[in-house]
Amino acid sequence: MFAGLSTAHAGSAYAQEAAENSQRSSAGLDSIVVTAQRREENLQDVPIAATAYSGDQLDSKAVDAIADLELATPSLSITNAGETQSVNIRGIGIASNSPNISNGVATYIDGIFQPPIVTSIPFYDIATIEVLRGPQGTLVGNNSTGGAIFVNSKDPTVEGVEGYAIAGYANYDQYEVEGALNLPLSDSLALRVSGLYRDRDSFYTDVGPFQNDAGKLVDEGVRIGGLWQSGAFQAVLKVQWHEQDTGGYAYRPVPGTVFAPFRVGDIRTLSYDNDTSKVERQFLSSLELRYEFANGVTLRSLSGYQHKRNNYLSDTDASTAPPSAGGGQATDYFAGEKQYSQEINLISPTTGDFNWILGGYYQHNDIVVDINDFSPPPGVIIDPRNSKDVFGVFGQGNYRFTPALEFQLGLRYSHFDASGTGAVTLGRDFPGFP
CATH code for 2-432? Predict the structure, then answer.
């Protein structure tokens, strides 16, 4: 169980430039509408230490993906740790290269909690991104001690036809196309389709027998959203697919190692004696249902399903060294995760000095990792299987004494159930396996 008390100044949030859909405040400053507390509020009025960006601001700051946020956000650090991302806010987080361990800072895409497996989905057709500092377990489904990052794509709207299209070309034969289109189908039904495609040659040249394209980039993604609203009821369905192919990791033997004599050319020259590849795939779906009662209380349901798959094949010794010199090493790595989640909220109206939120959350994950080390004997096979269930109930109440002083009380109960099996196999000659 977690309980917290805090006081907050309404000016403690870091307000940024105006979002496309924000309104002018009475002071003449632009504002961003955020949903950090599961209701639409002006960033300047939210009693949480937060930074928010509109889609236009992300473009102007060259923030293209989650990893780029640390360049624009105070006290945020994001680093890749193998097949996971280590996210820290104010130095709080968990650094682990295991997809079985969740970060201390939670990341959400359209309200759906993201597993720690590295996700390189680029930002496109984004409404807002919100970075919240401090514990968030009394406001959202999954618990997080360091903070939370919310990535919110644009919802369909019945207010009119609109969209955008972008095309570009750069060196290394890089070209990209990005766009979105919103189509109202009736007064209560709308459809929004957005997508992105990028293609870039590798920065490196592999002079080995396989002539790999390690370090290239092919990004493909599409998102389809549907809106239906009738009176006090609203439903928003989003389905997103993304695939990224980078051709494998690009690295060279380290000076001073047994493989150093096999370095060739300059820093952009590779010499592999194994095939390489690296492909990341993700499917994400979310369904948000909202109903507002006559007294202003909102009942909200958010259902999510996602499936992530990361697979890479690498030349572990990064050289053409023969087996007699310790070469011939390769690794085939696969990590996959399926996640189902369900969140239910009761949310008070924002008209009074006392606001509250109640919620329940359930999440189930199935995780598969296969690591095949195709080295000279003995070699290694590692194949853990894990599943986990997360259940939580939470609530928070805020009372505003003055425009500059607010009292908060939050409670949370969480239950975790995890199980796993696996084996480590030694002493096999893997290249001869079917």
Answer: 2.40.170.20
